[in-house]
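Worked example

This section walks through a single chain of length 355. The input is the sequence exactly as stored; nothing has been trimmed or padded.
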Amino acid sequence: MRPLKGLTASEIQSRQLLLQWEPVGYNLTRCHTYSLSLCYRYSTATGGGAGGNNATVRECLSVEGNTSRFTLRDLPPFHAVHVRLALANPEGKKESREVTFQTEEDIPGGIAPESLTFTPLDDMIFLKWEEPLEPNGLITQYEISYQSIESSDPSINVPGPRRTVSKLKNETYHMFSGLHPGTTYLVSVRARTAKGFGQTALTEITTNISAPAFDYEDVPSPLSESESTITVLLRPALGRGAPVSTYHVVVVEEDSSRQVRRRELGHMECFPAPSSHGETPGGGGGASGAPPHYYTAELPPSSLPEATPFTVGDNHTYNGYWNTPLDPSKNYIIYFQASSNFRGVSDPICPINAH
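Given that input, the structure is written out below as tokens.
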């Protein structure tokens, strides 16, 4: 005779609706054989993110005719759900008007771990992430936690304290600062709605190592000189993020542009290594802009536990490098450089100290 009336929701949750309507009677069905269906639809994004496409889910469920209550389950949180009732007998069908209900928010889905991208430096990490594919409501904030879990620097205590940072809902990035070089951090990111925090996305990020540091306050003077040798004081360097792996004594022959070269060296990286051990003196230069130079000695860190005199030009061989005697008719600048490596990768920057 007419559609059913009074379709309401007596209870609304994030993933289900408890619906009720007026009782079905013979005054409506006009027939002892009839069927009652509850139909609903809602739109949902597919593909995730702003570029996702909207798809519509539609379904009709058969409801027992002697009931006036039904629970719709497995609904998406924070969605508009459009519901109608269809009453049918052998002569036809009457549909109620469509009523819209809004499911409540829920905790957000997890941030996809593959959406975490980062750029590590030696004492900083720049981290970015994407909104959860299933926000399940309005994101109110993000929470980032980080903790050092591994370091090749024995002076760093691991695991370190866990620190937490809160970010605004539109800040899907963070710059970590004040970190230790050559240290692995466990980083977690999670989103929050009014219902609480969602699942955490985890990743491990290792900061780059820093160049070792020397404690020379200024350029030291030679301890002694002879016609073919110069004795200098070598001090050990302090590894930052990784222990010092190798020391090199480098000899540069001075020329008329000495001051220019020394200024250039202030902005240089390491003197490039010779193509082979024992390469002839005076080689070098090349694309790096380094002046002609040669390695005269390679020293292991164990040979320099403290400040130690070293004689350049003593005619000995140090790990394959010939410490060739110096030419008394020439002037030289002696450089001492240290390098570190971490997990098999050498640090590209070496501090250089001139004598």
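What to look for: Residues 46-51, 256-268, 280-290 have pLDDT under 50 and may be disordered.
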